[in-house]
Design goal:
Muramoyl-pentapeptide Carboxypeptidase, domain 2, 8 helices, 5-stranded antiparallel sheet
Length: 196
């Protein structure tokens, strides 16, 4: 027979275990976010880190990053399997390749996802546009010709100039491999662009 004291002990252990698991899961999510951010170009890592933190604090949604820097092989795979990507940019001629972009979904406290198929009005209602604008980011929801609400980038330089720099350094886009996010952009002219 279980005494009242034993019940309290087991209840306390159960609650402590749940708190531990919740904290561990939250830490794991934070670690996963950080792993994606560390793949970005060093010039933009802190901006994206601050952006993600502010989105979570101000919107109440959790951020799940689904893609950041994409090396050559990953870019080829996505180009071959995604007609939307194929329509917009060649391999090595996009901001993911240089670590200046990430894709992310938002998860509401009730578990609802905001993703590629979520209507523009729903995304807009989160206030994420104002946060992206604060960090000088473009938002894929505004791209002409295709809808990409999960995409955020900081297009510091013209993608053709970055590709030429990569080809000059490595001999070809393919030879750049996974190094596009570490490319030295010195000497390139800053790009003018319209933030979100």
């Amino acid at each position: 027979m279980m005494t009242r004291t034993n019940k309290l002990i087991f209840t306390g252990i159960g609650i402590a275990s749940l708190v531990f698991l919740f904290r561990k899961k939250r830490t794991m999510l934070r670690d996963e976010l950080e792993n994606y951010i560390k793949l970005l170009h060093p010039a933009v890592q802190n901006k994206f880190r601050d952006f993600v933190d502010e989105v979570e604090k101000k919107t109440g949604y959790k951020v799940v990053i689904t893609s950041s820097h994409r090396g050559y092989d990953k870019s080829v795979y996505i180009w071959n399997t995604n007609s939307q990507v194929r329509a917009c940019c060649r391999v090595g001629y996009d901001y993911h390749f240089y670590g200046l972009a990430l894709d992310m979904v938002l998860v509401s406290p009730s578990g609802t996802y905001l993703n590629m198929v979520t209507p523009k009005q729903t995304w807009e209602s989160t206030g994420i546009r104002e946060i992206a604008r604060k960090y000088d980011m473009r938002w894929g929801i505004d791209f002409y010709g295709y809808y990409d609400p999960v995409h955020f980038d900081i297009p510091l330089y013209d993608v053709n100039d970055m590709a030429n720099k990569a080809i000059s350094k490595y001999g070809s886009i393919q030879a750049t491999g996974d190094n596009g996010n570490r490319l030295d952009f010195s000497g390139l002219s800053k790009r003018n662009y319209q933030p979100a």
